[in-house]
## 1
Amino acid sequence: MNRITSAAEYKKTYKASVDNPEKFWATQAKTFKWKKKWKKVLDWDFRKPDVKWFVGGKLNITENCLDRHLKKRGDQTALIWEPNDPSRPYKSYTYKALHKEVCKFANALKKNGIKKGDRICFYMPMVPELAIGVLACARIGAIHSVVFAGFSATALADRIKDATCKMVICSDYNSRGAKNIPVKKVVDEALKKGCKSVKTVIVHENTGDKVTMKRGRDKWWHNVTKDQKGNCKPTVMDSEDELFILYTSGSTGKPKGVVHTCGGYMVYTSYSFKNVFAYEDNDVYWCTADIGWITGHSYIIYGPLLSGATTIMSEGVPTYPDAGRFWHICEKHKVNQFYTAPTAIRALMAQGDHWPSHYDLSNLKVLGTVGEPINEEAWQWYNKFIGKGKCPIVDTWWQTETGGIMISPIPNALKTKPCYATHPLPGIQPCLVTPEGKEIKKKKAEGLLCIKYPWPSMIRTTYGDHERCRQVYFSAFDNMYFTGDGARRDSDGSYRIIGRVDDVINVSGHRIGTAEVENAINEHDNIIESAVVGYPHAIKGQGIYAYVITDGKVKDKAKFKKELDAVVRKFIGPIAKPDKVQLVSGLPKTRSGKIMRRILRKIASGDTKNLGDISTLLNPDVVKEVIKGKV
Ligand code: WT7
């Protein structure tokens, strides 16, 4: 697989990938092990949407992640696990050992009745068993649906029901910083909410603290794997068989299950991993994301393992036991590529410049960021204090739906520029369009970011509701994938992502739908109506601002705020708690009764001068009140 190492090579490769995409991707795909070669590289129709890559090809992604490497690098470390508590020993698995563990668990799944096409939900902290479990599913063709362990029992139950999962795999507890979070208890609670499809729960013993096991349903991980063989024949999968479902928030309704398939996802995650991180043999790569999000799927597990890399997964948080934890891990494992979120950088920056100086960071070669726009100050700090001015910073723009990194600098080939994700990777054809759907041809422009040609790791459908997939991503603009982001393009073709143009808030790199938060808040007895918007937040990027109309019976505001936190916690999870709550007597609405979020967003951001024409509102007077009561 080619890795781009110069500007000239990027230019040439990009051109080739656009002139003849099928030839380009066929060349990349050939480096993998296929059980049967594809008949056709690409079949597509964005209007349906119907996208198929490597049509008729047969493969198993884990054979490419594991078996393919055994001969050359069987004894090389594949996975390093760093525990939450630095005084506990870390674990590492060679490719041989990881292969064996994956096979054992795959056999255990089969023994417990799991077959190709069954959906399995993971609700686990960042322990090696999560990576092993996910790969074991892929080994036998079961579809994994990982749910971030910070979601509530209600949110978990919604996702289990939507995918009709047959099994849930969890841990007893989650050690996170100084906390010990009861994971199994949340699963028990979720399963009481009508998850009839679940037959078995497999519980991994993490902390060893007490849990209740339900007879006939719950089994220990160590018991089900005990007598299993360390070999399991990989199930032959079609290129377009489903590999996994991952739920993500949108502007309306419940979260949707983004579906990714085997062949294209394999080719693209590996190609993008090697290029964006300039990964070379024997490098040690660390991505701090959680496997509950797409970043963990594509760039902790699949991309690195497909590329024969050494990948680190860490259980803890950036500030436990202190703000030097990340840099301690970088020193300890001689990390070469480090990939994190802007919110983490800002949080650590706020703790003082001295923390990184206590550690040897000289092995670092490439630094990455993902999840939200990185502000210039954080970029400069990352560059100076972590990269010591010698590590290119790859600001990678992509989404759950894109499966892999779409726009990013390529080290030593494309210049980095603070706040810019810069240029598209080979094979990616972004464009800017006007709200009316006209492509803007002029280089220097601002518009809505779309992609006008398929790429191998793109979303195929939203689980159980294909029409929703069409509606959300392919109906806004004809024959294009709409990202939901706005972007600016410079005269050199470099892209700067501005952020979401829909009702999605990006809190610490977590995507949260305003409608979901409103629905949760509306469950509180005293709430008549609510409107939730994002506003700039120094550490989180965006904070959640909730405007609420109550029934007038709220006496103690502080207590009321706590109660709202609790309902949001109950229906979504702590990540969606509002940062600010303002009680209002009305919400600005159009004459047809639509809430004018644009105005609320401006007020929440403190930008009250440019509210535009408010005279056409149904209730212009309420605007004054809302401004006056800003918290
Ligand atoms: C949204 C996707 C992709 C993994 C993590 C988030 C925002 C993502 C960047 C970036 C500016 C970014 C976009 C995008 N986003 N990366 N480098 N610069 N914004 O995945 O939860 O699917 O969220 O995150 O708004 O649409 P996700």
Note: Residues 248, 293-295, 370-373, 395-400, 421, 483-485, 497, 499-500, 506, 511 surround WT7 (CB under 6 Å).
## 2
Amino acid sequence: MSSNQIKKLVRGIPEPTIRRMPLYLSYLKTLDLNEKTYISAPKMAKVFGFDATQITKDIGYTNVVGKTRVGFDIKELIPAIEDFLGFNKKNDAFLVGVGNLGAALTKYGGFEKTGFKILAAFDIDPTKVGTEINNTKVLHLDKFQNLAERMHVTIGIITVPDEYAQQIADKMVSWGIKAIWNFAPTPIKANEDIIVENTSIYSNLAVIIKKLK
Ligand code: NAD
């Protein structure tokens, strides 16, 4: 196996499978269980434009087995995918940089259905420190380490301007953060034992613009 292939496995599961699972979950939750109790891989394949075999393979990681001709029991599949994704567990995070994006993420209620919660947000701007966003306190960055230790928070979100992102990442790691979700455009660097997910809105935008041309 090449190192490239190794990188794409997360605890033995292909990363693309992990990325597809939340799509399946959101879709399954839109279905009316009074009308429909089973869903087949070919039906899901039509919805998502993926291969039915791929969908069966992905769902196989949840250990849910489909019934011949009818497919998967939706009631069984939803909690199985939540369990697979860890969405039924508590995943608490701290966010640094309460600007346009940071405030919007802190305000967003939709994360809660994934067990993910921004417990507190941090900034250095005195006009923001001491305020609240939908009951989430905005605290000075100085308070991060102590609170992260006390509250056992291991996920950090970075929404500071690009030029400060790496230094915030380094601080987070030194304060005990194990996983970083970075929204600044330049990918941040950290030791291999730190989980880093860089999210760039510009990558999706680039695809749209390129396709338009
Ligand atoms: P913004 O200027 O509105 O907010 C930045 C916030 O970070 C401010 O509140 C500022 O006080 C705070 N800050 C600056 N330095 C800090 C430090 N050292 N410690 C703590 N707080 C600090 O910026 P924005 O528009 O919200 O963008 C934030 C980041 O997100 C930028 O890097 C931007 O490029 C990026 N962004 C990413 C996406 C995406 O999808 N990935 C989308 C939009 C913006």
Note: Residues 96-102, 123-125, 128, 141, 159-162, 164, 168, 183-185, 199-201 surround nicotinamide-adenine-dinucleotide (CB under 6 Å).
